[in-house]
Amino acid sequence: MQKRGTGQGQGQGKGRGGGLGRMGGKGLGLGGSCVCPSCGARVPHKRGVPCVKVSCPKCGSKMTRAV
């Protein structure tokens, strides 16, 4: 028979918050820019729009976030 109310085992609030959050812990915050890996063009990063969803205005490649 399993004891109850001992505070041990699953479901007892023992989590430690070790998750990395969105983007695997690489959230780069507001501002910054998106850069084209092909031609090097830069555009300002728009909040809520991932850089990989933005096409380069010069060559049409998908952009990446500048670090």
Detailed description of the structure:
The protein is built from no helices and three strands. By secondary structure, it is low in regular secondary structure. The protein has a domain at 29-67. It has a three-stranded antiparallel beta sheet with strand order 2-1-3, with no helix packed on it. The protein is rod-shaped and about 70 Å long.
Number of helices: 0
Distance between the termini: 56 Å
Cα-atom radius of gyration: 21 Å
Strands side by side in the biggest sheet: 2-1-3
Low-confidence stretches: none
Task: Put the structure in a nutshell.
With 67 residues, the protein is mostly loops. The protein has strands spanning 33-35, 42-44, 64-65.
Write the SSE topology:
Blueprint: E1 33-35, E2 42-44, E3 64-65
Antiparallel strand pairs: 1-2, 1-3
Task: List its traits.
12% strand; little secondary structure; 67 residues
